[in-house]
């Protein structure tokens, strides 16, 4: 068990170092991709978020400008260097955002005993492709949502177009071992398996990009 934990810790610290190294150039690189492929995805996400918002894998905080002014935003990320840029962005925007290191696979907000069902909205954009255990991450996001709350995801996923799917397969031979970057994941299926109801789902860029909004059901009246 101890050996397993230390393997996990070593794995995590490898990707933490990776994202720390990526941080200074991240906004520039992401800007190029966004203009080419992501359309209005950050606005789409921000316009659906409300209340107590948790952003998982918040990175440099590129979504912060798009949340409603009265949203109470918390962001977690494994990379202190990415978070440092997000802190500066929040200050420049005049937003009071709680930003802290944390792992998507083990969300920990045990404040006043309220660790489960704590958030009105959970957001994860372009990070599930990079989280080592994305199944566990989606289950964690569902757990910390309150009943009736919304999970908002956007990411590159396995394409609907066969030629793009073949290209994704080839790219993954390099991107997974070198950058921890997966191109053929299917978050939609994990969201459904976690018991959430997908209410909106868009696929674009030849089906390689997906954004979705899913609601955590309320327990039925009288259910135990
Ligand atoms: C491609 S960036 C996306 C950042 C941001 N969400 C955006 O939309 O620009 C991926 C982010 O996921 C973070 N990340 C990777 N694995 C993680 C994990 N297990 N837990 C939390 N954050 C993680 C990285 O540090 C990085 O900031």
Explain the overall architecture.
It is a single chain. The chain is α/β, with parallel strands linked by helices and 224 residues long. The protein has one domain (2-215): Rossmann fold (3-Layer(aba) Sandwich), CATH 3.40.50.150. The chain is built from 6 helices and 7 strands, in the order ααββαββαβααββ. The chain has a 7-stranded mixed beta sheet, sandwiched between helices. It is globular and about 45 Å long. The mean pLDDT is 91. Bound molecules: S-adenosylmethionine (SAM). S-adenosylmethionine (SAM) binds next to helix 1.
Jot down its keywords.
224 residues, alpha/beta, Rossmann fold, 7-stranded mixed beta sheet, 6 helices, 42% helix, globular, binds S-adenosylmethionine
CATH architecture assignment name? 3-Layer(aba) Sandwich
Distance between the termini: 35 Å
- The computed structural class is alpha/beta
- Main beta sheet: 7 strands, mixed
How many distinct folded domains?
1
What name does the CATH topology carry?
Answer: Rossmann fold
User: How much is the radius of gyration in Å?
Assistant: 17 Å
């Amino acid at each position: 068990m101890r050996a397993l934990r230390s393997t996990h810790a070593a794995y995590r610290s490898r990707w933490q170092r990776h994202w720390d190294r990526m941080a200074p150039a991240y906004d520039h690189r992401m800007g190029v991709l966004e203009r080419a492929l992501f359309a209005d995805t950050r606005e789409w996400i921000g316009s659906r978020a409300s209340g107590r918002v948790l952003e998982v894998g918040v990175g440099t905080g590129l979504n912060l400008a798009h949340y409603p002014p009265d949203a109470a935003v918390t962001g977690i990320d494994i990379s202190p260097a990415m978070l440092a840029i997000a802190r500066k962005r929040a200050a420049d925007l005049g937003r009071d955002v709680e930003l802290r290191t944390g792992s998507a696979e083990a969300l920990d907000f045990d404040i006043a005993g309220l660790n489960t069902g704590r958030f009105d909205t959970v957001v994860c954009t372009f990070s599930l492709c990079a989280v080592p255990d994305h199944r566990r991450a989606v289950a964690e996001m569902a757990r910390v949502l309150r009943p009736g709350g919304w999970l908002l995801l956007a990411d590159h996923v396995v394409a609907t177009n066969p030629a793009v799917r073949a290209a994704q397969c080839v790219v993954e031979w390099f991107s997974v071992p070198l950058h921890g970057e997966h191109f053929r994941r299917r978050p939609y299926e994990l969201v459904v398996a976690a018991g959430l109801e997908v209410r909106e789902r868009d696929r674009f860029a030849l089906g390689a990009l997906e954004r979705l909004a899913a609601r955590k059901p309320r327990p039925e009246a009288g259910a135990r």
